[in-house]
Every structure is written in structure tokens, then in C-alpha cells.
Task: structure prediction
Amino acid sequence: MTRLETAFTTKPIFMPYFPLGYPDLDMSIDVIEALARNGADLIEVGLSFSDPLADGPVIQHATQIALEKGITVKKSLEAVKELRRRGVDIPLILMGYYNPMLAYGLEKFVRDAREAGADGFIIPDLPAEESKEFEEAAGDLPLIQMLAPTTPPERMEMIARNAKGFIYLVSVTGITGERQSLAEGLGGLIAQVREHALQSVPVCVGFGISTPEQAKEVGRMADGVIVGSACVKMIGGSEKPVEAAREFARSFREVLR
Amino acid sequence: MTTLLPPKFGPYGGQFVPETLMPALIELEEAFVSARADIEFQREFNQLLASFVGRPTPLTYAKRLSEKLGGAQIYLKREDLAHTGAHKINNALGQALLVKRMGKRRIVAETGAGQHGVASATAAALLGLECVVYMGEVDIARQEPNVFRMKLLGAEVRPVSSGTKTLKDAINEAIRDWVTNVRDTHYLLGSALGPHPYPTMVREFQSVIGREAREQMLMEVGRLPDAVIACVGGGSNAIGVFSGFVNDEQVELIGVEAGGSGIETGRHAARFGDPSKGRVGVIHGTRTYVLQDEDGQIAETHSVSAGLDYAAVGPEHALLRDHERAFYTSATDEEALNAFQTLCHTEGIIPALESSHAVAEALKRAPKMRKDQVILVNLSGRGDKDLNTVIKELGKE
Result:
């Protein structure tokens, strides 16, 4: 079993997102380690991009700071290697936009990511139509496909059929960021996706999930819960980010088991 | 998962957008393809171009300028005389009609110089649509008259303070709004950029420039031009005028990028002109030449003209360049300002700073050409909006 498959043996899984380089590189490595040691089952490790068009203000701000402090793809991959060196053994999925990967060179990027210990990729500006080039380079490392509330049923079926690793279901029509409440009709949407994905891969839900209560509710319906902006905001806004990360992971862990 | 029209121009173009937007792009392509084949839609569009925009725009012989330069005869395609003062209205009206056809009620648009924002606000007012225009704070400061114009036309102008606070960031915000409100909102993209079908659709709506210009050259001058020159930001006025001549192999097509303070200074927006920073990448949904750093972060750009101050170029231009069907060069801020003044003095026409880049190339070329040769310059917009900038820039000297 791969690390990714192992992670899904106990469901629902808790999957926080945190960008490397924020509030600075060393701190971000410590934060991700703390998330891993305190209940995260999988971590979406963020690579920064100057023009993150699927992200709301919290992640825009964090990745902007990471860039100002000098984060690069190369340093990000070295940080993943460092996390593995420290014994972090949960799956780490690299989440970033396409252009920095292209600039690094796709073959080289995938090779270095694999060598560093990454388990897959999420690329929000790479829909199914444009995935082929990357998937050919990625080989057996999965490119996680995303589905949205706007995805029509036939398209959903087609994407779910070819999905690898897990499906990332975007819960809201919109960009990343906290929401007061869960999207209306989310239960129906998850049920619909599960129907298509049942034979293939787990379904994880992200975008707009801010509180442990919301996570608990989503966790009853999905195989995994992804928390991005709330995680970045809580930890980034704290005087003691590592302690905040511990607390954050525990609070979600508790309600999801 | 197949598109109705080719989504790529050779290796360029494509649809690099979040999944949330893919269904909207599919719907848009369907609406565009069906509208294109619909005589009634074409009739309505052409009728608006005539009765509202004032098309055809004239072809003007720049007699004194040609004499002064002593070489090729220069003709100007007067998009500055189109309603709202630039070619942008052609595309804005075409897309706004599509919005009605799709049953959406709201449009969002980005704007750099403000011309596309004004055109979008105008089309929205004409057709009864709600309009929100995103504009970078830097551009709001340098294009103040257009901001007021948009507000008068009933649009909401939302300042963008993220990133470089210019066109690129305005596009980011417009896309974020679109992702959030895609069910009832259309993104009225103003250039031949972005994900398929935008580059094809925008070219089609702007192709009226090239069709008219070709016919006018034949009717009024009795021949085709030897060269067609247009400025290239995203590249919609250029692709519009080029489309009329692309099959006439003897006609040279020349695109002029913003050379800013000079290519060597690094402060420019010459995607093709600076191989150290301009490389093939993906931005705003399309694969094309993009100014970027070694790590793939989009570079800051600079141009005296807000409309050319953008890090990427329309994907079809990248292919035309590969095929050597079009050639791309650049004009610096200084050259553009000089051309701006020259056209004012010799022809009584105040060109937009964007269009002044095309005029600058004509000033360089014409003296090297014979008197029986002809240059067509696409004068994409008028310069009233730029007076503040020009006063400031000339005051420096």
C-alpha cells in the first residue's frame, strides 16, 4: 500500500493546508511537522505563486509573504525532504499553480518532488482538459482531480472514472476562504460524487470549511475534510505558530474520530 | 471533453482554469458557436456596430506626417473614432449580446487603461446588464477620467490592491469574482487572452477592423498596404487588424510591444522582446509568452501606457510569431511619447499612448521605405484619457 492508500484506511481523514515559507521557511516546516504529529492524516503543502487566482485573501496574503521572504519551488522541495528527515510519514501532497512547475521543468519537478518524498499533486489551474502533459510526467504519482458544484453529472462521471489518489470536491462555487456556514446542498453534491467515485477513489471535501463543527458535519458524508484558509489564518495570526498548529490539529482530530 | 472549436494555436492557448469555471467556458463556447451561425445575432451585432459604434471607422491618409518622414505613405485606421474612443467597444458589444443570449444578467470586466472598462460599462448600460469593473489602484490613479466615465455609465469600479495593482491583478480579481458568481455572471474579457474560447471569440469580434481596413485600402488607395502596424498588449486590436490581412502574404504584419524604459533596463512589457524574462508559461488560463522570473513567478511590468502594461501576450500572436507570419518589436516610453506629440502636431489627432507605440514604429520604418510604399497603422484609441500622464511625463523633461 502506498502512503496515500494507508492514510485512507481510517476515515474520515483530516487534511490541513499550509504554505511553505509562511510566516518564514523554518517556521513553516515546524508548523507542518506539528500538524502531522497532532492528528493530520495528510497535509496539502502549499507552493506559492504570484497570481493565485483560485485563492481568497487569507491564502493570497500568506503566499505573498512567503514569496517576499524568498520561497522558491526548489526551497519548497528541500523543505519536504527535511520533513521526511524529521520522520513525518503521512502523505504530503504538493498544492500549487502550474506556471512555477513549468518554469522548473515538469520532468525535473516530478523527479525532485518524488525524491523529496511528495505523494501527489494538486494544481488548481489544471483541469482535466489540460492534465495529460503533467500526468505523463508524473507517472504513478497522482495528480488529484477536482470537482466543483458547477460540474455537470456526465463530466463528473468522466473525471471520477479517471481519478487517482482521491477526488478533491470543491464545496462552494467560489475561491478558497472561510464561510459562515456550509454550502447549501452539500450533502446532495457529496452523495452524487460518491456515486460516481465509489468504485475508484475516496472523496475529500474542501473550500470554505472553517470550524471543527463544520468539519464534523462534512466528515459524516465524505472520506476526508480539507481545511485551508482557517488553518493558515489561525496559525499565521498566532504569536506562537507551532503551538497554534498543535492546537488546531487536535481540535479537528478530536471531532473527526 | 472535446471543444467545438480548436482550443489551441499550435502549442499555445488552452484552458488552464479551475474546474469551477470549465462548465462556464463550455457554455460560452456553445453560445458563441451558435451565435456565429445565427443570422439574427449577426444582424443585431452589425446593426449596433453601425448605429451605435459608428462603424465603419474611417481610413485617414496622414499626409503631413508622410511628407515629413519622406518615405512610405502612412494611413491610419481610425478606431479612435469608434464610440467610447477605442476598438474595445467592438468586442464588448459582441460579448454583451452573448451574455443576453446565455440569459446571464451580470458582467465583470478587468481594465488597465480604462478603455475596456468604459466599453464594458457602455455595453452593459445599452443592454441593461449589471457591470462591475476591476481596476488596479495604480491604473486608477493614472487613468482617472476613465474611472469617472465608468461610474457615470452605471458601472461599479472596484479598486484592486493586490500584487502589482495593475492589469494582471485586475484580471485575477475579475476571475475570482467570476468563479464565485459564475452561475449568473459572465466575464467580459477585453483582450485576445485567457482560456479558450476567449482568444478566438475576441479576435472574431475585433476582426471587423481588419475587414473594413482591407476593403478601404482597396477602395480608397487602390492597393493593399506593404505593412500593417499595431500595438500589442494582450493583442486584441492587433489580432483584429491582422486578421484582415493574414492571408495576403505580401503584407507584412508588425506588432509593437511596450519597451518601457528600455529592454535593457528590465522595466518594460516586451514579452517577445526580452528572452531573459519572456518565456512560454501559463497565466490567466492560457499558455503563451509570459514575463516571469526563474522561479515562474509573474514579473512586474512597466509601460507608460496602462493598456500595454501586462506580462503576457495573446496566444495567437505567439503562433503568428513562430510561423514568422507576424513580426514583433517594441517602442520605449520615450519613443511612444515622441510619436504621440508628432501625430498631434502633424495630423491634429491625439492618439492613445497605447496606439502611440504603433505610430512610433511607423516613424522608424517609413523613412526607410519608398514613397510608393504604404504603411497602415491601426490607431486603436484616442488619447484624451492620457492627458494627465502625458503632462506629467513631458514635465519631467
